[in-house]
Write a sequence for this structure.
C-alpha cells in the first residue's frame, strides 16, 4: 500500500510537484492556474482529485480538464453503501445543468455513493470534504468507478461493494488499481469508540469490543490511535478501506493513498470537520477502451 504522512503542497512557481512513495507518484497539475492531483497508478485513465480552488465548478465543468467528450455521471450522495452502474443513470448535461446539487437534466439525482461505468468515455464523479474519494480502475477492461467513502459508508463496506460489481462484470482482482484521494487524516479525526468498533467489525474476527480495539491497535499502520478524551479515539478511514481491500485479496501494492489531509490544509481543501460548512471538492475518472 502507498501511504505517506506528509502534507506538503505544491509550489506553483514550478509546473508540478511530485511525491513518490513505494512506486506510486502523486502529481500536482495546474489547469487555468488551479491545482488538482493525480496518481500515477491511474495514468491510463483521465482522472483528477480536484481542490477547493475549483469551486464553484461542477463535474459538467471539470470534465473539460479530463476529456470534454466524456459523458458525465454523478449521484446524490447519502453516506450509504449503494453503488450504481451508469446504465441506471442519466448523464448530466454538459451545458452546466448540474449547478443544483439535487437535480440534473432528468430530474432528481439517484441516491447512491458510488458509480461504476458500463462503456468507454464515461466520466464518474463523487464529491467529498473529509470523506475519502476512491477511484478504481481495471487495467484490462478500462472500466472505472468513483466511490464516496466516509465512516458510515466504510462501516457498510461500500468499497468492497464496488469491487464485487467489478468482479460481476468479469474483472479479476489482480487487474484492479485503487487510489484514495485527500481526506481527513487519522491523527486529527476524533470519533467515538462506538464508531471505531463498527469499522473494526468489518475487518476483525468476531470478538468483544475490548478485544476488537486491542486487535486494531496491534495492526501495523494501525487504523486507530489513542485520544486523550474518554470514550474517543482517532480514526483513519482510508486505512480501514485499505484493510477491507486486503481481506478481499487485493494486494497492498494495488492501493495508493494520497498523502494529504483535508482538515490540515485549509488553503486547498474544504473540511466539514474543520469549518462546519457544506462545501465540497470533486474527484472524477473517465473509462477507456479495453486494453
Amino acid at each position: 500500500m502507498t501511504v505517506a504522512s506528509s502534507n506538503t503542497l505544491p509550489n506553483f512557481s514550478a509546473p508540478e510537484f511530485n511525491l513518490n512513495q513505494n512506486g506510486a507518484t502523486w502529481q500536482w497539475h495546474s489547469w487555468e492556474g488551479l491545482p488538482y492531483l493525480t496518481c500515477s497508478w491511474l495514468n491510463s485513465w483521465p482522472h483528477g482529485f480536484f481542490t477547493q480552488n475549483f469551486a464553484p465548478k461542477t463535474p459538467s465543468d471539470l470534465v473539460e480538464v479530463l476529456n470534454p467528450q466524456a459523458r458525465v455521471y454523478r449521484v446524490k450522495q447519502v453516506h450509504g453503501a449503494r453503488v450504481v452502474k451508469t446504465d441506471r443513470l442519466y448523464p448530466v448535461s454538459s451545458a452546466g445543468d448540474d449547478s443544483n446539487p439535487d437535480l440534473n437534466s432528468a430530474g432528481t439525482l439517484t441516491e447512491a455513493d458510488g458509480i461504476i461505468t458500463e462503456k468507454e468515455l464515461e466520466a464518474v464523479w463523487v464529491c467529498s470534504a473529509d470523506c475519502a474519494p476512491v477511484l478504481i480502475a481495471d487495467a484490462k477492461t478500462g472500466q472505472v468507478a468513483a466511490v464516496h467513502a466516509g465512516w458510515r459508508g466504510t462501516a457498510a463496506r461500500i468499497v468492497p461493494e464496488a469491487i464485487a460489481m467489478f468482479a460481476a462484470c468479469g474483472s479479476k482482482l489482480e487487474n484492479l488499481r485503487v487510489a484514495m484521494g485527500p481526506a481527513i487524516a487519522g491523527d486529527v479525526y476524533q470519533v467515538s469508540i462506538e464508531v471505531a468498533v463498527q469499522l473494526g467489525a468489518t475487518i476483525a474476527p468476531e470478538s468483544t469490543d475490548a478485544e476488537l480495539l486491542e486487535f486494531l491497535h496491534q495492526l501495523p499502520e494501525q487504523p486507530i490511535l489513542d485520544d486523550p478524551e474518554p470514550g474517543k479515539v482517532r480514526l483513519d478511514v482510508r486505512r480501514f478501506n485499505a484493510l477491507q481491500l486486503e481481506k478481499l485479496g487485493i494486494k497492498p501494492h494495488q492501493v495508493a493513498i494520497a498523502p494529504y489531509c483535508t482538515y490540515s490544509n485549509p488553503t486547498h481543501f474544504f473540511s466539514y470537520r474543520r469549518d462546519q460548512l457544506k462545501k465540497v471538492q470533486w474527484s472524477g475518472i473517465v473509462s477507456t477502451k479495453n486494453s
Q: What stands out?
A: The helical segments are 59-66, 151-155, 158-168, 193-200, 209-218, 237-248, 272-275. Residues 1-7, 12-17, 95-106 have pLDDT under 50 and may be disordered.
